[in-house]
Amino acid sequence: MINTVFSFLAAHISAYGAVFIVSMIPLIELRGSVIVGTAFGLPWLNVLLLSIVGNILPIPFILIFGKKLIAWMKTLPMLSRLTHWYEKHLLSKSDTIQKVAFVGLWLFVGIPLPGTGAWSGSVIASLLDVPPKKAFPAILLGIFTAGIIMTVASRGVVGLAHLFA
């Protein structure tokens, strides 16, 4: 399946274009784009920088319009159930984030776990009415942290892949 995805991306857009696009996809974001870039054999610094830029681009819009977007998605029959679940899931983590504010948002975005990332962190900040001027630096720091972690991890995994071939 992964080979099919890579073949599709390689046939229709450049490897760099694939990294950039994947970095903007909710829930996949930088974590996935670094892996895609590594799998394509691109230089790590180019992948990291392109992934960071792509992951940052949607964040100001989410911080400003996130609450309205969630409210609108709840009205759509196809997305209503998923949106309610997603909001409940994110808000369940809000106590921790509010207690430690900047550091909490930074760690939530920066530690690459399922359901965390810049999109989720931005939506939480928006739902909790954290001013964008306060939320953006923490999210930005989280993106850099996740980028470094994922770059090191993906290079290690890809570097060891030849042992299992």
How does this model look, in words?
The protein is an all-alpha fold and 165 residues long. Helix content is 78%, strand content 0%. It is built from nine helices and no strands. It has helices spanning 2-12, 15-23, 29-39, 44-56, 59-74, 80-91, 94-110, 118-127, 132-161. Helix 8 (118-127) runs antiparallel to helix 9 (132-161). The longest helix has 30 residues, at 132-161. It is globular. The model is unreliable at 161-165 (pLDDT under 50).
Quick take:
The protein is mostly helical and 165 residues long. Helices cover 78% and strands 0% of the residues.
Alpha-carbon distance between the termini? 17 Å
Oligomer: single chain
Unreliable residue runs: 161-165
Please give the share of residues in helix. over 70%
Number of helices: 9
The major beta sheet can be summarized as:
none
Helix and strand content put the structural class at mainly alpha
Beta-strand share of residues: under 5%
Outline type? globular
Total strand segments = 0
The pLDDT mean sits at 86
What is Rg? 17 Å
What series of H and E elements makes up the topology?
HHHHHHHHH
